[in-house]
Write a structure and sequence with these properties.
By secondary structure, the chain is an alpha+beta fold. Helix content is 16%, strand content 19%. The chain contains five helices and ten strands, in the order ββββββαββββαααα. The protein has helices at residues 108-114, 174-186, 208-212, 235-241, 264-275, and strands spanning 23-24, 46-48, 54-58, 73-76, 79-82, 99-104, 123-125, 130-133, 144-154, 157-168. It has a four-stranded antiparallel β-sheet, covered by helices on one side. A hairpin with a 2-residue loop joins strand 9 (144-154) and strand 10 (157-168). Helix 2 (174-186) packs across helix 5. The two termini are 39 Å apart. Residues 1-20 have low confidence and may be disordered.
């Protein structure tokens, strides 16, 4: 297994980015626990908001995505504390700040904060430093993942903890998340609105669901505009990326006919809506 050194960009080595923020000099939250190592050393580094060695979250789920936003990024509450007691293991001064390796991306801020933790007094990293962003794709939105290995040393003995964090795509709805994007960007005069909408497809509220359920242009008689659950088989996705169709909105990505181009978050929301069943 290869891990990235975030201080150099190489795939092996220790990460020791120094950040000005990310450490809160506070007591360990009530739910702190060890990372699962031997009981005698498991307190060298304690963890909050770590329900297990594999922490899985769905984008927008407020129980694990601490910013509560359905935006293509899971913000995890995972936080680490030094010099606190865990079970029978007493608070123990460290020989040096903890070090960490990661496979994947998204834990850079937490890794930097670990390197600033105090070694002889208690201190905790801030919550919300691990942010996993889901990459957009024309075929399938895949979970974003990072594996984090952290080592704390006291008296020459090591406390090694490993966590795998997974961010699954969210489940946007047409009414709440997607229709506002259509309304703002696709329903101006001469676009997908009015009596004669472009491509005979209205994206106005109250009409978009029915029109998107139809097949695409006459030159693509077997391709639905939106195939619930399938990005690859949805003609709308081709329009979003501009492959085999005019990129939506017209003129994007560089020169929109009117208004503006979609943001990465807006594109993600439309894709996630289709993949989740287009409800």
């Amino acid at each position: 297994m290869r891990f990235r050194d975030v201080s150099t960009g190489s795939l092996v080595g220790l990460a020791f980015v120094v950040l000005a923020t990310g450490v809160a000099r506070a007591q360990c939250p009530p739910a702190c626990a060890g990372g699962g190592g031997p009981a005698s050393t498991d307190c060298y580094l304690a963890w909050a908001n770590a329900p297990g060695k594999v922490i899985t979250c769905t984008d927008g789920d407020g129980s694990c995505d601490v910013d509560g936003q359905l935006d293509g990024t899971c913000t995890f509450g995972l936080a680490a504390c030094t010099n606190v007691a865990v079970g029978a293991c007493a608070a123990t001064p460290l020989d040096a700040p903890p070090t960490a390796l990661q496979k994947g991306r998204g834990a850079e801020a937490l890794i930097g904060a670990l390197g600033q933790l105090p070694t002889v007094t208690s201190g905790c990293t801030e919550s919300g430093l691990v942010k996993l962003t889901i990459a957009t794709s024309q075929t399938k939105l895949k979970p974003a993942k990072v594996t984090l290995r952290v080592t704390a040393v006291a008296g020459g003995k090591k406390d090694k903890d490993t966590f795998k964090l997974v961010c699954n795509p969210g489940r946007p709805s047409l009414a709440t998340h997607v229709q506002p994007i259509f309304t703002e960007n696709c329903t101006y005069a001469g676009c997908h609105s009015g009596q004669l909408p472009q491509s005979d497809m209205s994206l106005e509220a109250g009409k978009s669901a029915a029109d998107l359920a139809e097949t695409a242009l006459s030159s693509f008689p077997k391709i639905p505009r939106v195939k619930p659950g399938s990005l690859k088989k949805s003609y709308l996705v081709k329009g979003l990326f501009g492959n085999g169709a005019v990129q939506m909105p017209d003129g994007c990505p560089n020169d929109p006919t009117e208004g503006r181009c979609l943001t990465p978050t807006e594109t993600y929301l439309i894709l996630a809506w289709i993949q989740a069943g287009a409800q």
